[in-house]
Amino acid sequence: MRCLVVGGTGFLGGAIVDAAAAVGHSMSVLARGQTGRAQPAGIEFIQADRHDTLDTLAGRSFDWVFDSCAYSPDAVHRLLDAVGEGLKRYVLISSISAYGTFEKEGLNEDDPVPAPTDADLAVAAAVPAADRASAAAYGESYGRLKRACELAAAERLGNRATALRVGLLVGAGDYTNRLTWWVRRIDQARGSQRRVPAPGPPDRPVQFVDARDAAGFALTCAENGPGGIWNVTGQEMALSDVLDAVATAAGSEPEFVWRDDAAILEAGIAPWTDMPLMAPSMPEFRHFLQVDAGKARAEGLTCRPLADTLGRLLDWDRGRRDQPLGVGLTAEQEARLLG
């Protein structure tokens, strides 16, 4: 099939390119070309900013379009206008953030989601052109705008539109570094750095999906044709099991020092950013890492063994230890928790 991946030099977009090219599809990538990701041989690179002009798509036709970086309904409409009428499948990368609140455990595709508002659309319109490719630029409107993108795609294409509400993505190339921080810190848990503070209790639920597995399911949706909305994330695990698996992959022997939410907050440490994989304790985030992806698993979503994800992530990060991660505990914060 003739495939276009919009944002195909990014983290998940790049994984989709690799998955589709590996099984022989004809691939084109549309991106601004700012990540520096080299494209495999035989893949056409179309340099363009989707928020500027898509004239470079004139006269081209595609069977499948994978859209990994739509943050406003206008972006969806402009892209669909540019690719024309012959499209067989449009796969939109949405987000579980579309649910808005996670007070319920096991949210599934039948649960209600908040509707986008005029204020959300105004937020999208006000984002500076240079920032429109960044999810963070849309602030608290991000989830509702993802819902607006889903609605725009369904309005235009009906059942030819598939929206994947992706959970926390991990793997080599992850720019958020939330799992990567733990991999790096535990790899360094040797000698005087063996003691590692962790957010208790040890059975704290966590959930994520390897970008390669999410990409594989995106390809499954294009090949098999299921439209509609799909939660895409992995099975729920205990944080202690994940951290122990990291230690096994790294060959280190950390001593985890478990601290409860109260101790972490009293130490001035922010969940999720300072303490990755610790969802904020407010009710609306309580079950953020406990979403139900059973529908997608029944359709063919498969998640590789955790050891595979961690091994590749460890190899990748060991080759870039000079790069700061931008998340995680500082040495001073660790000392406060370990003291």
Describe the global form.
Answer: globular
Low-confidence stretches: none
Main β-sheet: number of strands, strand sense, barrel status? Answer: 7 strands, parallel
Query: Structurally, how many domains make up the residues?
Result: 2
What is the element string, with H for helices and E for strands? EHEEEHEHHEEHEEEHEEHEHHHH
Number of contiguous helices: 11
- Strand element count: 13
Distance between the termini: 59 Å
Bin the helical content.
Answer: 25-40%
Average of the residue pLDDT scores: 96
Structural class: alpha/beta
CATH topology of the largest domain: Rossmann fold
CATH class of the largest domain: Alpha Beta
Instruction: Give the CATH architecture of the largest domain.
Output: 3-Layer(aba) Sandwich
Q: Which superfamily, in CATH terms, is the homologous superfamily of the largest domain?
A: NAD(P)-binding Rossmann-like Domain
Lateral arrangement of strands in the main beta sheet: 3-2-1-4-5-6-11
For the CA atoms, what is the radius of gyration? 20 Å
Instruction: Report the sheet-strand fraction.
Output: 15-25%
Give the assembly state of these chains: single chain
